[in-house]
Amino acid sequence: MKKIGLFYSPDTIKTHEIGQRIVEVFGSDSSVDVISIENATQKDFEKYDNIIAGASTWFDGELPVYWDEVLPEVKSADLKNKKVAIFGLGDQLGYPDNFADGVGLLVDVFSGTGAILVGFTSTDGYQFSQSLAVKDGKFSGLVIDVENQSELTEQRIHDWVSQLRKEFD
User: Fold this and answer.
1) CATH number for the domain including 133?
2) Which of 117, 123, 144, 155 minimizes the number of CB atoms within 10 Å of its CB?
């Protein structure tokens, strides 16, 4: 498998925990580089053929500020034919009308770069009204709700990494 660039903020506790679990589940036989999104540049995104990007959803469906600041770098990157998978966190009971919208916002940005989106997952088992993360009836990546379904997190990560191993090849 080609080297993977995993982009997220290590300063956000829950996103950091999920990012670290993803690295651990990929295991030592895979090459995953963790890049702090706060310091990421256009060249950082361009140097990987396989990218994982992660963010929580803030407030009423917004991306965290650190993502807003790096979006111009992503938008100007040439990611044509690079594979991108998104993971995100949300609270389906507290924010049912914009659950995990951050995933959908990142998908829209990466789609505009020519990237190939992978890692879509089922919405089964979640209870929410609306989400920008849903495209064609599926989540546009891995969606984690540690507030309400923490007991499902580990299995969801394992299943997603197994899926990405196939889709990234």
Assistant:
1) 3.40.50.360
2) 155
To the question of pTM greater than 0.85 for the whole model, the response is yes
DSSP state of 157: H
- β-pairing, 116-118 vs 83-89, is parallel
**DSSP-assigned letters across all residues of 19-83:** HHHHHHHH-TTS-EEEEEGGG--HHHHHT-SEEEEEEE-BTTTB--HHHHHHHHHHHTS--TT-E
The number of folded domains in the chain is 1
> How confident is the model over 100-118, as pLDDT tens digits?
999 999 999 999 999 999 9
Q: Give, for 6, the enclosing helix (H) or strand (E).
A: strand 4-8
Distance CA 131, CA 128 (A): 8
Domain encompassing residue 85: 4-168
